[in-house]
Amino acid sequence: ISRIPNVTMSRPGIMGYYRFNPSPVVSLRASLMFGWLAGKDSNKENDALGKARQAEFSATVNQLSAAFEYNFFDYKYTAGKRGHRLTPYFTAGLSFFNFEHQKVSTTDDVSARYAFEFAIPFGLGLKYRVKNRINFNAEFLANKTFTDYLDGVSSYPVGTASNTKYLSNPLTSDWFYYLGVSVSYTFYKINCPD
Fold first, then answer.
1. Structural domain tally of the chain?
2. pLDDT at 164
3. Domain range enclosing 67
């Protein structure tokens, strides 16, 4: 609903991931996330469209992602490697997600808003190796979707013919954002000297 991220509508989520470090510069990650999304036009000041539309929604989202991480500094992810214990990183990838609305104020047909979609997640993060095997991570991800139905506010509501009164911009699709912190455990083996 909002054109920019609105922290007042933040909702909880949980993510589990597996990260593979082929080098100190690049990491590969697979993740599974479950979370809630919400939005409300009444939370936006100085927005004439929002005040007139008065849309509101809440939904659950399940997301499976594959991404790479580029570490700006060589990351010392194990005790035997050279590099930095702290590094910012850029991440990008591809995700497959589904969503189901719990509440949509722009239509009575909530069941029609269930879908499987693709998204492009990308963002910035910070990782820090606390101990030999314990890492702390913080990151912000933006998810560019290819659907205009995530928030229940579409150019043409599901089940209706084209209408001259748009609910949203017909040329844009929806986005959702993730801001989180995590702790990870590094699995590695110590090679015996020859």
1. 1
2. 42
3. 7-185
